[in-house]
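Reviewers asked in the last cycle whether our approach scales beyond single polypeptides. To address this, we selected a multi-component target totalling 518 residues and predicted its structure end to end. The input consisted of the following lines:
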Amino acid sequence: MTSVRIFFIGGLMSYRAMFNWLSPWILIPSLVVSPICQILLFAYIGRSAGVGNDEFYVIGNALNYAAIPCLFAMGATIGGEREGHTLGIVLATPARRIPLFLGRALPVIANGWGVAMVGVLAGVLLLDVHIPGSAWPAILLAVVVASASCTGLGLAMGAVALRVRESAVLGNVVFCLLLVFCGVNVALDDLPAWMAAVGTWLPLTHGIEAARLLADGSGLGAVDGLLLREIGVGLIYTVVGLALLRFFEDESRRSASLDRN
Amino acid sequence: MRQLLHQQWVCYRLQLRVLSTSLFDGLLAVFFPLMFATAALLVYRLNGDEESLQYAGLGAAIMGMWTCQGVIASSLLTRERWAGTLELLVAAPTSLTRVLVPITMALSTIGLYCVVATILWERWVFDLRLEVASWPLFVVGVLMAALSLALFGFFLSVTAVRYRTSWALGAALEYPGWLLCGFLIPVSSLPVWIQPLSWAIPTTWAMAGIREAANGGSPWVDLAVCAAVGCVYAALAAYLGQRLVDSARKHATLALT
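The resulting structure, written as structure tokens, was:
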């Protein structure tokens, strides 16, 4: 029961605290304006280059932007505890680590899903993209899977934030790599082979491909393999993240580096 | 005059060192637009049109200057607030203008690093050699872009003084700037109603001048307009800066706590 409470209530409190003590103002420019502008930027680049169609860029960039909350929030929860001088207290508690950290991931997954869906909806409205009504439920599911998978990578990043001060820089670097390698604006088939190979081991890649197929009218059955691969990639990163958290926590206790900043 | 130049030089050099050694303001400010330039060039490369690739390559080289200025300048005073030095700056006998302009000039210098890094990246990674008819005029255009962006950054920094989360505002300016300034897509391809906004940004004129220089035309008209628009923002910033600071002191809201 304690673990369930830590998972849900602890995760929600940590998420709320992340936005500078309940100020929703930063949500608007960061998680609404920016993803819409990124979608418009690449849709216009595509038009100017005569490559792809608007739907391709709307889906790719909307899902890519889900990475911002998924990556940054996990790093920020650790960094925020350090800035608030509460990281030592959190890690000194007997709370089980899996509900403690996965609980923080749950609101982040919902946030990533929301950001991606705002992007898709804005793209549909602003660029007159047509997605069949029957495709929407499956797209919602694909976006949830992609957000969860990306949060696994965010968890691994959060673990690294136990030792690295510049979690914001790390988050931006990883976000950029996802932009270039995950088939966000160029389909995997059109990327150089080594980039496509790297992309298949990153979160978002299979989720974006699945969402595009769904938007083109494919059924859920046609993309189940892609979604399972997306879940598999996410699970790998989640396990790696939990292992890294354990390792860096032990290491920081040994070397007294927890509050070093 | 000599004292003013000395103060400007000392402040500029100090801030450039601070920015250059910051992973966020130095390294990331170059890396982030470089990766977006890479994504854009990957798209343009697909159509196999060399002329389009040249167009995108030229704009991609300049777009990082916007990131270095627009994103960071918006949060300049917030950073001073976090560091606890804003009150000291405001109380100092040196005007805020004389403090902020060298900082935004230092940000523009980081933008110049970005131009060089992107040109080299395009050559090494994409085998794209920019075809520029007049390199001296190209350099003049880039320097004018840097100067006008510094003045625009000065405007952004003072107008965001009352926003506690101005860093988020700055981050949100990044993509609109890339979209509006004609770096990767022609301004004429944007909806007509939004084009006046593009021409109100000095960087749009600088980019047009740089393209003229690259194509063998005369960039001087575009660069003159760029300078004029930059000066308008500087004048507005000097006026607003004093008003906002006076208001903050009067209402004791400088700290925003």
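The mean pLDDT of chain A is 87. We regard this as preliminary and will revisit it once experimental data from Aim 1 are available.
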